[in-house]
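Human: I'm a chemist; would you kindly supply sequence and structure tokens for a protein?

Assistant:
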Amino acid sequence: MKKIILVAMTLLVIGVFFWAVRWFDPYARALRLMDNAEPAKAVEILSEALEKDQPPLKLEPMRELLAKAYIGKGAVDSAEAVFKTIISSNPANFEATLGLGAINLLRDKVNFGIDYLEDARKLRPNDSRPYLILAKVYLSRRDFEKSESVIIQALTLFPTDRSFQELAGELFLFQGRFYDALNQFFPLMEASPSDREIRRKVALTHLYSGDADEALAILDSLKPTWATDESWELVRANIFRDQGRRSQAMDVVQRLYSEDNRRVFSGMAWAGDLSDMGRNREASDLLDKVSLSVPPLGGVRGIGLSLSDLEKLQAVRDSAKVANAYLALAKAKIAERSLSYSDADGFLDKALNIDNGLFSVWERKSNLARLKGNADAQLNWAQRGVERFNNHPAALAVKAKALMANGKLQEASVLSKSVADSYPRMAFAQAIYARSLLATGKNKEALDVASKAVEINGNNEFAQLALALAQRAIGNVFEAEAGFRKAIDLDPLNAEARHFYGSFLMSKGRSKEAKLHLDEAKKIEPIVYGKKIK
């Protein structure tokens, strides 16, 4: 019995000894302090301990923890120095490599950050962190190929990781792969029905794929009950525009910006709506005010921030980049409407330099070439847009339109049919296909397709114009005139609709009415429809 008691006492003493060693061990103490969100005290303990000789096996883990403690207290310079010390003695240290990658991103030294993160990914292929950061960085840089490569690898390794599934959806949305995007977003939405951001992205994807009604239904289920949600309201305004409810769309963005002039995207949208109404002076003055609140590019460096702020910081930088690109795009639109085509070209070049991943910039480049009467450049920019975005349906439709302008009617018909078949709810794509059928003399088929476009979205001016032209081609005079009028009512600055309506009226001997519309078309697009710009 005495032996049993002696053994028990010995084991107890040994246990207490190891507990005491662990409790008072600098690494264990620092770890507890980090868990308690006291990184400054952890730095003190570890720094003091590292001034003394430490066993080789403990040295590297203590340095790793010290670097993380420095990051926790915002001392990024000190953290970087420690990580570099670790790397100098052990280049294969994963945590130090990952840390240096993140620190370089914090400082906006993106290329250095990427190099470290790629090294970290090779060092520990089964750790999701470098994949996640890299995928977001590549997507932010609009490097779609590398972003997709990282995301595919990540989903192979981490198939149930929600972050990578959402990133895949965002990538597909950027590229115009709308069905692929929905396939990524739907399971996420079903798993988290209350996730507003996922539902907003699903609504946006439906809108871009041509299903505005479904987009609005999803969006209405997200209506905020206690505060203004600008991103929700902006999608709603976009849906209104798609449905031809321009005044309602402008009411939304005007209210948003009037309530808070820091809502720069709302202000730019309002300026765009004013320009679409021909109120360019007001639009320009408004844009001057909005630009004062647009964050400068490269203005957020992140020195002194913690790694936990990296994602937030990246979002701020991305927002600044997109805001500056949209500002240049909005200025281009006003310049274009004011017939200052060279200024518009400059603004579009600036937008491309800031963010070449916005499809609308490439689309406007192609359209600007058309306005300048350069059909070859129109097709060139359309082709470059297709190469940049691959299967983006709008990019393909813009190319089909450019092919028609260059007299390549058969190619245009084949291409526009493929888009219309792939996206049967996209009224714009159906309208382009109908126009290509008209150009090749297939008037009855054109009427059927144009009727489908109007059935999808009766307030789409392109669909209404296509239907009017098809009705005219088969001799339905009253229906054709109603279609022309509807297209002009939807967009009074649609020079093409006015030109064709004027030509139609002239053919009916109504020369006085015809001249009003033909002159207006020349005024809106002078190079395309007559008068040269001085």
Summary: The chain has 30 helices and no strands. Confidence is low (pLDDT under 50) at residues 7-23. The first helix runs from residue 2 to 24. Residues 393 and 422 are 8 Å apart (CA to CA).
